């Protein structure tokens, strides 16, 4: 059993629990099932399966949340992910209204991976919408 519910339960709680179980079910259960998500452009190298991030030839340590956020952006490179999508996938349904979490962690991520965090070239902002990973050209 992954979870259990005690009656009575509200509709929002039920939907949130089902989504959480489905989200966990999407995660690979064995090393062979992991998606092969990698990126390399000479400055930034990422191997999601190995949890490796190398910036300018130096290994960078990301916190588990920073890594989940970065991996999600990388997996959806070029596609804008809304604040709510990021919050739900990285933090869980409990945080879907807490935009500060995303902003703070994006700031930390930029400090670690961007050549110049004040002029990001990888983790881009779509004002009022969310963020996306932009591959170097």
UniProtKB/TrEMBL annotation:
One of its GO terms (biological process) is regulation of DNA-templated transcription. Transmembrane segments: none annotated. GO terms for molecular function: phosphorelay response regulator activity; transcription cis-regulatory region binding. Keywords: DNA-binding. Residues 34-135 form the OmpR/PhoB-type domain. The keyword Ribonucleoprotein does not apply. This is OmpR/PhoB-type domain-containing protein.
């Amino acid at each position: 059993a992954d979870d259990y519910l005690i009656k009575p339960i509200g509709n929002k709680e039920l939907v949130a629990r089902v989504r959480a179980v489905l989200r966990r079910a999407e995660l690979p259960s064995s090393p062979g099932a992991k998606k092969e998500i990698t990126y390399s452009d000479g400055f930034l190298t990422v191997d999601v399966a190995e949890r490796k991030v190398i910036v300018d030839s130096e290994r960078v340590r990301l916190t588990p949340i920073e890594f989940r956020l970065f991996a999600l952006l990388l997996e959806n490179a070029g596609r804008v992910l809304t604040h709510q999508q990021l919050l739900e996938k990285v933090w869980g349904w409990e945080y879907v209204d807490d935009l500060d979490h995303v902003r703070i962690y994006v700031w930390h991520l930029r400090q670690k991976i961007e050549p110049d965090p004040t002029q990001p070239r990888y983790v881009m902002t779509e004002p009022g919408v969310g963020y996306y990973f932009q591959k170097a050209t």
